[in-house]
Amino acid sequence: MRKSLPTDLVPADIIDSEDDRYRSFLLTLAMIFNDLKGLVIINDSIKEAYRMPLKLEISEHVGEKEGIAVQMLKILFATLHEALEFLNQSDDVYKSKRFQLLLQRTSSENQLVWEMLVKIALHESTSDNRFDKYKEIQGFLVEARNNVGFHYQTHKRLIDGYRKFFIEGISNVVPEARKFAYWSIAREFSDSRYYYADASLQGYYINLFGDEKLAQERVEEIFGLLNLVVYSIHDVLKEYHSNIPNR
Fold first, then answer.
1. Rama region for 141: left / alpha / beta (φ>0; ψ in -120 to 50; rest)
2. pLDDT tens by residue, 198-221
3. Average pLDDT over residues 67-89
4. What is the mean pLDDT of residues 219-241?
5. CA torsion angle for 48, 50, 54, 56 (degrees, to 10)?
6. Has residue 25 got a pLDDT over 70?
7. Annotated domain spans of the chain
8. Mind listing the pLDDT tens digit for each residue in 109-136?
9. Residues 6+ positions from 203 with CB-CB distance below 8 Å
C-alpha cells in the first residue's frame, strides 16, 4: 500500500476549471475501476460460497445461487454502460493535450484500446474490425440498463421475460424447474427470496439478445469489453501515479 498527500491528487483550491476537470476525470476512472473490480470479486466469491448443485436439483440453495448470479450480470451490464456513457461525456478531457501525453506513456496496445473505447462510447465508426462486436454490444447495454439495470418502470419487459422462462421455456433449464413459480418467505429477511423474479430476468436477457445462443455469445463479449475497460484504466492510472510523490 502506497500513500500520497491528498493535495498531491487534488489541490485544496481550484487552480483552473481545466485542471479540475482533468483531475475529476482521473478520479472517476479510479472509481470505475474499483466498481468493476468489486463486481468481479463478488461474482467470484459467490461461485466459491455456493456449492455446485446436484443434477436436477431444485432447492433454495440453487435458486439463491442462480438468482444472485443473474443479479450480478444486471449490475455489471448497467455499470459498464455508465462507464461508456462517462467516456461519451468526457471527450474533451480525452482529447486534451495533458491526457494524451499521459496516454502516450502507456503501451501502444493500450493506446489503441483507448482509441477504440472512446469511438465505441461516441458511437463513431472504426476501421479496426476487431472492435466491431463491441460497438453492437453498446445498444444492448443501453437496453439492459434502462429496462432492468437501474430502472424498474419498464415492467412490460420483465413480464415478457417471465413468460419466456415459464411458458416458452429455456433449453438449459429443466422442465421441472419451470413447472412451478418458486419463492421463500421466512421471518428473517435473509431467508426469503422470490425466485420467479430472478427467472424473469433470465428470460428478459434471452429476449433482449435474440435467442439463447446469442445471449451466451453476448455475455462472453461483454466480459471481453469489461476486461478492455478495466485494464485500459489500470494502465493509465499506473502511469498517472508514477509521477505522484509516494510519501
1. alpha
2. 999 999 888 888 888 888 888 888
3. 89
4. 91
5. -120
6. yes
7. 16-242
8. 999 999 988 988 888 876 667 666 676 7
9. 160, 161, 162, 163, 164, 165, 166, 168, 170
Cell of 135: 460497438
Give the residue among 89, 220, 84 at the shortest CA–CA distance from 141. 84
Task: Give the predicted TM-score (pTM) of the model.
Answer: 0.85
Give the chain as a 3 state SS string.
Answer: CCCCCHHHHCCCCCCCHHHHHHHHHHHHHHHHHHHHHHHHHHHHHHHHHCCCCCCCCCCHHHHHHHHHHHHHHHHHHHHHHHHHHHHHHCHHHHCCHHHHHHHHCCCHHHHHHHHHHHHHHCCCCCCCHHHHHHHHHHHHHHHHHHHHHCCCCCHHHHHHHHHHHHHHCCCCCCHHHHCCCCCECCCCHHHCECHHHHHHHHHHHHHHHCCHHHHHHHHHHHHHHHHHHHHHHHHHHHHHHHCCCCC
Question: Per the structure block, which three cell numbers stand in for 94?
Answer: 480525452
Rg of the chain on CA atoms, in Å: 21
Residues 6+ apart with CB under 8 A from 88: 121, 122, 123
What percentage of the chain has pLDDT greater than the value 90?
39
What does the alpha-carbon distance between residue 236 and residue 26 come to, in Å, rounded to a whole number? 9
How far is 168 from 135, CA to CA, in rounded Å? 30
User: Which residue is associated with the grid cell 419466456?
Assistant: 164
Q: Please name the amino acid found at residue 152.
A: Y
